[in-house]
Amino acid sequence: MTAASPYTTRLAIPSSATYQHLRVAAGLSAKSTAAAAKGLPNSLFAVQILHGDEVVGIGRIIGDGGCFFQVVDIAVLPAHQGKGLGKLIMREITQFIETEVPESAYVSLIADGQAQALYAQFGFKHTAPASVGMALKR
To answer: What is the average pLDDT score of the chain?
Structure first.
């Protein structure tokens, strides 16, 4: 963001409470406290967007650290959407990918709704018809 921007970035894993709040507030599925506490420390990379002291956006990368990486949890509080924060999150994630991810690695994500337009700006492409994303929901 610009020098006059009210937003700053923090390259750190969010707390479980912050993570749970942001996911639900941004319209993503809820995650239990136990799931968040177990999963978050396994993040390979995480970025938070702050407005003052409040975390208003997050994004993470998970994976095995060598062959496979997945971009997850891109979430921005509704009051702060439409201000370029999704792009800011993706710029930080892209920087991590460019500097830390081996060229032979596979980086994937699942794009919900219109978010695919954001991800396309950062080089992500539809995999169909060669491959199709699948999920097992629990």
So the answer is: 95
Where does the pLDDT of residue 2 fall: very low under 50, low under 70, confident under 90, or very high at 90 and above? low
For residue 63, how many other CB atoms are within 10 A of its CB?
Answer: 20
CB 34 within 8 A of CB 43: no
- Euclidean distance between CA atoms 8 and 102, whole angstroms: 28
Q: If you search the block for the tokens 């979430």, which residue do you land on?
A: 75
DSSP-assigned letter for residue 52:
T
pLDDT digits (tens, 9 = 90+) for 51-103: 999 999 999 999 999 999 999 999 999 999 999 999 999 999 999 999 999 99
> Which of the 8 DSSP states describes residue 14?
P
* Residues 127-135: contacts with CB under 8 Å, at least 24 apart: 133/108, 135/110
Indicate the pTM of the whole model.
0.93
For residues 107-117, one letter each, b for 16 or more C-beta atoms within 10 angstroms of the residue's C-beta and e for the rest, the string is bebebeeeeee
Tokens of 134: 């699948």
